[in-house]
Specification:
Arginase, Chain A; eight-stranded parallel sheet; 8 strands; globular; 10 helices
């Protein structure tokens, strides 16, 4: 039996964030050995290198707070095409970021591919933030706070590429949320997105809500995209992020999520985003992301060597 194939796509996006450094994220994950790890686990890995952006020709948005609209729209188009291609040509695409605005493109591309196969796309959003602003509602103007609103088809994205297939908000589960603006909170209620904030995780743990979500994905015979933001993790174990929010997921909570995802055999693609190596401690966060990815791909606790951090 031929080994399964994985395409790695680098997306050095930092136009959506306020603090520079995410542009180095893909290189840090490669240096930490993500491709070599996957190969030792029996996958045939093809690293497609880093995408190169071309800024779109857009009209200035009425919200003067917005930064880098043309560049972010350009990234969204390029990433939509790259994700769609990677999904067609491999069993499992991994997108190395880059700030979280890249998910506007990666998830749009994965949703298009799922629709081709007449399957719904589900999204597990592991993040401190819901990223549900629109260009109209954002006060900071940082477009890494908008991808979920875009790929669920909300209004205000006229400058962005039209969606081939939007994601049903009810097919999204968010875990680890702990920093929500009023406009986003209102939109969560309106759209019916399933959110387990850190209080819910404190009360329920991660296993029960995740298991219920995975049962829904299985029942619908859906594809599952996992979008993993470094700030989902507590800053004490993952300092390399420009949007630190105290009280995030612990080492074992994060690994349990990844282990359960592997056991489900439902995950079809992955984002690793917001890694800012400039803020890291001797590669601590990059190595942790690689180890978490290994758990997603089937490394068991008994297989794990003593960590370097």
């Amino acid at each position: 039996m031929a080994p399964k194939t994985c395409q790695i796509v680098g997306a050095p996006v930092q136009t959506g964030a306020s603090q520079p450094g995410c542009v180095m994220g893909p290189a840090a994950l490669r240096t930490a050995g993500i491709a070599e790890m996957l190969e030792t686990m029996g996958w045939r890995v093809s690293d497609q290198g880093d995408l190169v952006n071309v800024a779109a020709n857009v009209v200035a948005h009425p919200n003067s707070a917005i930064h880098n609209l043309a560049e972010t729209v350009g990234w969204t188009k390029i990433l939509t095409d790259a994700a769609y291609s990677a999904a067609k040509n491999s069993d499992f695409p991994i997108f190395l970021g880059g700030d979280h605005s890249l998910s506007a493109g990666t998830i749009a591309g994965m949703s298009k591919h799922a629709a081709d196969e007449k399957k719904p796309l589900f999204v597990l959003w592991l993040d401190a933030h819901p990223d549900l602003h629109t260009p109209d509602s954002t006060d900071s103007g940082n477009l890494h706070g908008t991808p979920v609103a875009y790929f669920t088809g909300q209004e205000g994205f006229d400058s962005f590429p039209p969606l081939a297939k939007s994601v049903d908000p009810k097919n999204i589960t968010m875990m680890g949320i702990r920093s929500v603006d009023p406009a986003e909170s209102k939109r969560i209620d309106e759209l019916g997105i399933n959110v387990f904030d850190m209080r819910a995780i404190d009360e329920l743990g991660v296993a029960k809500p995740l298991a219920e979500f995975l049962e829904r994905v299985k029942a619908a015979d859906g594809h599952l995209h996992v979008s993993f933001d470094v700030d989902f993790l507590d800053p004490s174990i993952a300092p390399a992020v420009g949007t630190t929010v105290p009280g995030g997921a612990t080492f074992r909570e994060a690994h349990l999520i990844m282990e359960m995802l592997h056991d489900s055999e439902l995950v079809t693609s992955l984002d690793l985003v917001e890694l800012n190596p400039f803020l890291d401690e001797r590669g601590k966060t990059a190595h942790l992301l690689c180890d978490l990815t290994a758990s997603l791909f089937g490394r068991r606790v008994l297989d794990r060597k003593t960590a370097r951090y």
